[in-house]
Amino acid sequence: MFPQFGATADTLSKASTMVFRIGTDAHLYDDPDDVSIAPLLDSKFDSEKCEALKRLLALIAQGIDVSNYFPQVVKNVASQSLEVKKLVYLYLLHYAEKRPNEALLSINYFQKDLGDPNPLVRAWALRTMAGIRLHVIAPLVLVAVGKCARDPSVYVRKCAANALPKLHDLRQEEHALAIEEIVGKLLNDHSPAVVGAAAAAFASVCPYNLSLIRRNYRKLCEILPDVEEWGQIALIGILLRYVIASHGLVKESIMFSLQCTGSSHSVKDGPDADFGQVKESTDMDGTCDYEFVNMVSRCYIEGPDEYLSRSSYANRESFELTGEQFTSGKSNDDVKILLYSTSPLLWSNNSAVVLAAAGVHWVMAPKEDVKRIIKPLLFLLRSSNASKYVVLCNIQVFAKAMPSLFAPYYEDFFICSSESYQVKALKLEILSSFATDSSISSIFKEFQDYIRDPDRRFAADTIAAIGLCAQRLPKMAHICVDGLLALSREEFVTKDFGFGDQEAGILTHAILSIKSIIKQDPPSHEKVIIQLVRSLDSVKVPAARAMIIWMVGEYSSLGEIIPRMLNTVLKYLAWCFTSEALETKLQILNTVCKVLVGATEDLLTFKKIFSYLVELAECDLNYDVRDRARFLKKLPSSNLVSIGQEEGTNDLPEKDLHVVAECILGRETRKVKTESFSYRFYLPGSLSQIVLHAAPGYEPLPKPCSLLLDDLNVPEGTSEIKKRAADYSGTDDYGTSSDPSDNESASDYDSQHSVAESSGSARGDDSEFTSEGNDNADPLIQISDIGNASENQNGVSQSGPANLGELMSDRALESWLGEHSGSSNPGISEQSQVRISSARISLGDVGKRVKPKCYSLLDPATSGNGLKVDYSFSSEISSMSHLLVCIEVFFKNCSSETISEITLVDEDSNRALDAADKAADVNQSCLASSDNVPTLVPMESIASLEPDQTARRIVQVRFHHHLLPLKLALYCDGKKLPVKLRPDIGYFVKPLPMDVEVFIDKESRLPGMFEYTRSCAFTDHIEELNKENGDSLFVKDKFLAICESLALKILSNANLCLVSIDMPVAANLDDASGLRLRFSSAILSSSIPCLITITVEGKCSDPLNLSIKVNCEETVFGLNLLNRIANFLVEPTLS
C-alpha cells in the first residue's frame, strides 16, 4: 500500500493508533517499568507530580504493586494543587490498609484539609479518612464526620453521610449512639442529596431505630421525589417500614384484607387451618386468590423461614393479628402522604425506583387503587431489556395473587424468540395464571407456536402451561387434552430411537398435564385414559410410562371398559417387567397391588400375576425394587390375606395390616397445594425475591404497630402536602411534589409572631425603682420575675412589669435566702442551688449613651496641608440599597489656611461628573438592580474649610468583603491622597427588634452547625465599681454597672438591638454568674437573623468570664462576627 511513500499496512496502523491517542492518557499504560516516576514525585512543579501520580494509578489499574512509592506520595498530600490532592487521596485509599503506619502520618494533613475553604478539599479529606478504615483513627473519623455533618456545603454533608456506614463497619460499639445522632441530624437536612445519602446510612447503621424517622416523616415524604434515584430506593423502604411499625397494616389493601377478616376466626380454626387443603379461594368477583395472598402477606411480615417453620407440624404456634394492628388507608394521613409521594416515582427512569414504589402501593394501597402500578410496570417491561427478568419476577407474584390485575394486558406477555429462556419461562407462568375465557383462544394459538420452538426445554414448559390453563378453566379442558394427546402420538416423540432428553421432557410434561386434568374430573375423561393405555407400548420414556401405569392402578374400577382391560394390561406389564427402568418397575408393583386390593373379578389371575412380579422383584439387581417387593408381600388385604399367611411371619394382627393396606393402596387421595413453598414470598423489588432465598441484609416487614407512638407535634410545612394527599384515592393523575428545599431556609427563620419593642411600653410604672440621684433621668432599670433559669432557657417566661413585692415570689424568696431544704438531689452544688431564679431587667434609654468608636482615615501630618479626617460607623440604614453601609466622616482643618474642594471618591471612579448628577444616576441604578450598586455613593463635596472648622458628611459605602479594606481617593486643594477605609463587621448588620419569646424561638431553630461559641475576659466594669463609696445601695449597683458596661461596649461597636437582660436572684450578692444579655440583628445583604447571647460567670469585683454565643445561618459571617465581638470586649475602653 502506497509503496511510493514507503508505507506499509503495519506502519499505517501504528500511525492511526497514535493519532487516536493524541489528547488522551493512554500513554500512561505503555511502560510499566517507568523509572522516571520517583523524580517526578519530588519535582517542584505540580504538572510533573500529576504526571507521576497518574502513572502510578495506571499501574495500579493493571494490577502492579506500587506501594514502594508510598512515602513519596504521602508527603505530596500537603500540596496546594487540587488535582495533586485528589490523585494522592486515590492512592492512599488503595494502599492505606497495607501500609497503616505510613497512612497515619497523613492524618494531620487530612484534619487540616477539613478546614479548607474549598468544599471539594474538605469532602476529599473526609472520604479518604473514612476509607482508611483503621480502628486507631476511628475516634478522629467520628469527630470529622460530626464536623462535616454541620458543614454549609451540601456536597460535604453528603460525603459525611456516605462515611457513616464505613465508620459503622469498624464495630466501634462505644460510638454507636453518636453515629445514630449524626444520622438523625442528616435526615433532617433540607438538601435532597444529603437526605438520600442519609437514608442509605440509616439502612446500614440503625435500620431498627425508627424513632429517627418519626421526627422527620412528613418532611421525608415531601422531599422524596427530589432525592437522587438510589437514595429514593432506600428511603421508600424506610418510610414503608415506619408506617407499618407505627400505624399497622391497611385493612383495605389486597395483601391484608383477608387477615382482617381471618383474625376473628383464628381461635376456632387456627391461624393456618386453611393451609392444609386447597379450595377455590376467590372473592365475589373471582379476581383474587386469597389463600395465596394470605400466605404471601404472612411471609412479608414473618419472613418465609419463620412462616414455614410455624406452619410445620413441629411448630404450631399461632401468629395472630388483632384489629388494633390495622388502620384505614382512606383516613390515615401518614398512609395517604406516603402513597401520594411515591405515585410520581412509578414513572421514574430508574427501574429499581419503579419497583420500590410499586411495592409500596402493592402492600399499602386500597384494592381499588392497586391498578395504578399496572401501566408503569408494563411500560418498564417494554422499555428495559436489562431489567425485564426482575420486573417479570415481581409481576408473577402480582398476577398470581390478583389475576384480574394484568388479565386485560395478556398480549404484553407474548414471547419473542430473541428473549432468554428464563424470561420465556416466567412469561409462560404469568400467562397461565391469568388466562380467562375471552383470552384463552389467543393464548392457545401462541402456545401452538411455542411448542415448535427449537428450544425443546421451552416447548416442554409450554406443554406444562397448557395443563395449568386447563386446570384454571375446566371448560377448555377437553380442547387441551385433545391437543396433548395428539402431541403424545407424534412419531418423533414416541419412537424407540432418535429422541433425546429434551424430547423425553416434552412427552413427560404432556402426560403429566393430562394426568392433572384427569384428576379434576375422572369420569368425563375415561376415553382419554383408554387411549393412553393403548399407546403404552409406543411410549418408551420411563417417566411417561410410569405415569400411564399409575393411571391404570388409580382408575382401575372406572367405567366399564377399563376393568375389562386390566387382565391384558397386567400380563403385558409382567412380561416386560425385567426390561423396564427403575421408576417404571416400582410403579408396576404398586399398580398390580392396587388392582388386587380393589378387584372383584379375575382374582386368581391377578394373584398369580402379583406373585410372579414379587418373585421377579425379589431377585432384581436394584435394592429399592427388592425392598418394595418384600414390603408388598407382607402387606395383606382382603384379597392378599392368603399370600401373607403362606409366609406366616406377620408381626401385626390381620385387622391392623388390613387398615394399613387400605391407607396406602386406597384410592382416597389427599389434595395438596400445587405451588411449592420455594415461591417468591419475599418483598417486591428485593434481591431475595429473585434468588428465592433470603439474601444478606434482607429483613421482613416489622410487626404491625410495634413502634410505640408518642404525642408529637405535627411538623411545620406539612399542611400543604396533607391537603394534596387528601384527594389521592380519587384521581389517577399524579402531580409532582414541590421541592421544599428552595424556600426552607427562609421559612425557618421567618417570624411567626408580631415583633414589637417592649422596652418602651412598660416604663411608666417603674419610676419608683430609679436612683434618688437621677431624678431627672429616664428609668434605668425595670424588673420582672422570669422564674426558674431552666424555664428561661426553654422559652417559658413571665413578661410585663412587676413591683418589688411581685418579684419576691415564694420560689425566688427561698432561693434568695438559701432555704432549699427540700432539694431531692444532694449532689447539686450550693452555688447552683442558690442560682435557681432570675429576674429580667431592661436599661432605660441606653441608646442615648452609645458612643460609636472613631477611626482615623487621614492624619494631618500625612496629608501635608493639615487636614484631619476621622470616621465612625453609623447605625443608620441606607435607603438606597441594602448592600450599602452608612459611615459618618468628620473633616477638620488643623492648619492656619483655608482648605478648598474636599471630596471623597472611589479610586477608580471618574471625578469629572458632577456630584449631584452622579447621585441621581446611582439612585436610578440602585432601584433598577442591586448588581449596579456602586462601591461609593459620591458625597457632597466641601467647597472650603476654614481653620479649626469641622465638617460632617454621611458616606454610603459598599464593601466587597467584611474583612478587606476599601481603597478610596481623597481630593483637597487639587491633590489626590490615597486612603483606606477599613470595614467593621459589627456594622454589616442592622437592628432586628423582637421580644424574648421570638428570640428564643428563633434561637432554637439554629442549633448545631449554625451555633458558634467563644469565651473571653471582661474588665471594663471594675473601674466603674471602684468609683462607688460603699453605701447601702452599693450591692444593687454592681449588677447595674456590669449590665451598663457590657451593653454600652457592645452597642458602641456593633449595630445591634438589645433584647433582654436576665439578672440572677441569688444569696451571694457579689456573684454575677448567670447574668445573660441577648442581642438581635439581621445581616444587611440577606436579612438573615443573627442572634448574640452573652452569659457572665464570676464575681462582680473580679474580671468576668464571658461566654459569647452567635446563632446565624451564614457560617462564615457568624464566625467572623463572633471573633469581632470577642476582640472588642477584651479591649479596654478609652476614657
From TrEMBL:
The keyword Membrane applies. It is a peripheral membrane protein. Residues 809-964 form the AP-3 complex subunit beta C-terminal domain. Residues 748-761 have a biased composition (Polar residues). Keywords: Cytoplasmic vesicle, Golgi apparatus, Membrane, Phosphoprotein, Protein transport, Transport. SUPFAM superfamilies: ARM repeat (SSF48371). Residues 721-781 are annotated as: Disordered. It is found in: Cytoplasmic vesicle, Clathrin-coated vesicle membrane; Golgi apparatus. It comes from the Eukaryota. Belongs to the adaptor complexes large subunit family. Subunit of non-clathrin- and clathrin-associated adaptor protein complex 3 (AP-3) that plays a role in protein sorting in the late-Golgi/trans-Golgi network (TGN) and/or endosomes. The AP complexes mediate both the recruitment of clathrin to membranes and the recognition of sorting signals within the cytosolic tails of transmembrane cargo molecules. AP-3 appears to be involved in the sorting of a subset of transmembrane proteins targeted to lysosomes and lysosome-related organelles. This is AP-3 complex subunit beta.
